[in-house]
Amino acid sequence: MGELYTFVVSFFKNGGIFLYPLALIFIVGVSIVIERTIFLTIETTRNRSVWEDVVPPLSAGNFKKVLDITRNSSATIATVLNYGIARLAHARRREDVEKAMDESMLEIIPRMEKRTHYLSALANIGMLTGLLGTIVGLISAFASIANANPAEKASLLAASISVAMNNTASGLICAITLLLSHMFLEAKTTKLIDSLEIASVKFLNSVVERRENDGNGDMPQPTRPMPPPATSRPGAGRMV
After folding, report:
1. Do 47 and 196 touch, CB atoms closer than 8 A?
2. Is the distance from CB of 182 to CB of 35 less than 8 angstroms?
3. pTM exceeding the 0.85 threshold for the entire prediction
4. 197 or 164: whose pLDDT is higher?
5. Is the terminal CB of the chain with fewer CB neighbours within 10 Å at N or C?
6. Are 54 and 81 in contact, with CB atoms under 8 Å apart?
7. pLDDT tens, 136-161?
């Protein structure tokens, strides 16, 4: 452990000033990765739990029970189902309910992808910062040996090139790590969004199936009392 600490301190001390912004970029990127991973994992767990609770009443056509479950949950899937159930009270077509659920997805997707796109930008900035440190190190190397003693030129050039390569290595490590993390989070986010879309389709299919079982052509609606039959007016049908 002590040797590792000594190596890191020596690496930063001999690596030049550009290693410090590189370290800051790396720390910010890793912080985003940790925060997004925790958020997406929690949302996936919540969605799975809510969906397991919703499936039985949804299969039975008990939309009131589904609404009670989703109202008491902060999961993203609960938001999607809330939009659909709220629309059921007024819509008579599948397309209307589907549009309402698509609207909820427009609200949810930016929350799922929040800050993830920063990782690709930070990776590019880190790589370019390392490249800049390399160029500055090489310029310093050749400037230092211009008027140096011929016997010392080789050692001075080797030391300066070592500093330049430290910047190159640091920039590549930062860029590769953040790009891989970006790919991981993109895949995790896409999987979560796909699960929400699948749940929306299953909800709509359940509504349509309920409609067909009820034997009418409209979306399931609360039952209404039939109007009383019209009474004939006095004298109706009497010949004048």
Report:
1. yes
2. no
3. no
4. 197
5. C
6. yes
7. 888 877 777 777 777 677 777 777 78
Burial class from Cβ neighbours inside 10 Å (0-12, 13-18, 19+) for residue 85 reads buried
Task: Note whether 55 and 30 are within 8 A (CB).
Answer: no
Give the model confidence (pLDDT) of 32-54 as tens digits: 999 999 999 999 999 999 898 88
The sign one gets for the Cα dihedral 159, 160, 163, 168 is negative
Say how far apart CA 52 and CA 47 lie, in whole Å.
Answer: 9
Flag whether 8 is in a domain: no
- How many degrees, rounded to 5, is the angle at CA 202 between CA 93 and CA 41? 130
- What is the tally of structural domains in the chain? 1
Given a contact cutoff of 8 angstroms between Cβ atoms, the answer to whether 92 and 219 are in contact is yes
Structural domain span for residue 58 = 13-212
How many alpha carbons fall within 13 Å on the CB side of residue 224?
6
Residue 229 lies in a domain: no
CA atoms within 13 A on the CB side of 200: 23
CA-CA distance, 183 to 170, in Å (whole number)? Answer: 20
Tell me whether residue 59 is in a domain: yes
218: which 2 tokens? 């409209």
Tokens found for residue 164: 């330049």
